[in-house]
Amino acid sequence: MKLSSKTITLLGLYLSLSFNVIASDDSEADGQFLHADKCLKCHTDQPYINQKSGIENYQKLHSRVKMCSHQAEAEFFDDEIISVTDYLNNTYYKFKK
Ligand code: HEC
Hints:
By secondary structure, the chain is an all-alpha fold. The chain has helices at 5-23, 27-38, 40-43, 58-71, 78-93.
């Protein structure tokens, strides 16, 4: 099998993220890992913070993550949805909780 450079980059990201999860029990690190695992297949092409999205507070972000987790067929537990929401919020949206 021939590995593309994109695959190798993703693999590297994967390994460093897995390491982070093992290295800490921080729920946001967990969210970062789950996000890379389930969400990046669409969201590298579809960046966050779309001005027309209507996501204007933490609650809406939480609902969107929940909706998208169904699209991703990710079957997240509630606390995993919170971890992913916190990761996206701290990385991109910066809403007050
Ligand atoms: C099947 C492709 C797909 C997957 C997988 C997916 N998404 Fe999405 N997501 C989209 C599309 C397309 C949009 C933008 C269109 C829309 O708002 O309906 C979107 C929009 C979003 C938004 C709103 C972005 C904004 O406009 O501010 C968030 C937040 C989000 N997704 C989170 C997630 C999370 C978290 C996961 C993983 C659990 C995920 N998505 C997995 C396709 C996907």
